[in-house]
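Attaching the record inline, Q. Sequence:
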Amino acid sequence: MGGNISSTRVRPHTTPTRDAVSRAEILGVLGQLGQLSRSEIAKRLGLGPATVTAQVRRLMTDGYVRELPSDARIGAGRPRVPVELIADSAVVIGMSVTPTSVMVVSMHIDGSVVDSRSTPFDPATDPLGQFKTMVLEQQAALDHPERVVAIGISVSGAVDQALSTVRISATLNWRDFNLGAQLQELINRPVFVSNDLFALSTREVSFGLGRNKDDFLLLGLGYGVGLGIVNRRKVFCGAGGASTEFGHMSTDPNGPLCVCGNRGCLQVYAGLNEVLRAVPDAGGHLKLAELRQAADGGDPAVLAFLGDIGHRLGRSVGGVVNLLGIGTVIVSGQTTSLWPALNDGFRRGLDETVLKFLLPLDITVKAWTESEDAVGAAGLALHNAISLNVPLHARATALA
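Structure, as predicted:
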């Protein structure tokens, strides 16, 4: 679907406030650890007691959290009054979009996945109609479909998250597609559309490996190449709501032409489709599992090819590390199945680039599952939904 897609607008989403972020973090820590008192939550998250008290009260009013009987204690001091998450009080639906399929998940607010399914998808043929059908089918499969409070959609590309508009997606061939507003009108639920790395980074802050890290980089390797930046527990977002476009960092001005109009972007070297098309002597028809088998089997040409890609990525990430001084890197995405062949080149690129006093870096490679990006989109939807000033019982018919 080349060219522009209709950009009819409804009310734009607002950026979640710091209070909303605090509420998301409280939900995350309760989902992870279970029953906690307000003071224990404050200590875990490094938030002020007054902030926690106010946000827990808001979460109780919204129906996400309940207070339990106090723990009787011997001696002086206040009794411990725990609160707990009501895990099934609300459901969010997350969708991750690829050029051939959409993974759809339903997630409770404790981060547990209720249901997941993969559906074939053609981004060039009535994508709104396809998305509407997927949402309604996923909702109908729930025991309490009325508890769906929001939908999150993650795509590879530049997204104006304030308007939930896909500005450009190289992998889907979309430009200026106001997906969120148009789908929201069709399904009567808040819809949040995000760059896939921004969604994953947001989820990591509250529910994933980033819970205990104030600053980290999330390198996403799949159909798109992206880098989420988290600083002081806030995911970086540029002007107009766009996230970082790491995949369109030009690494060779004489390199192949990228769909964005520049040459030598990381995308043309390390995007999954581009990698599979460029494998030496494969004729452009190799599948990911076949490439992994060749790498595991020690094919010299394949190992050299993947080593070069890892090296290019390592040097690029190293430049970001120097720029921001962030020494924790989480790697995720479909292409991580090739990480044993990418790793040496990646670390060599880092060693050649990163300032010595910033070494060693803390690098974690996450095991990737097919539903990972969709869960990230669901986490973002939850994160944003709790900032809506609408009581829980009314959200089933509310628009953002």
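The chain is about 35% helix and 20% strand. The CA atoms of residues 72 and 79 lie 6 Å apart.

More tomorrow.
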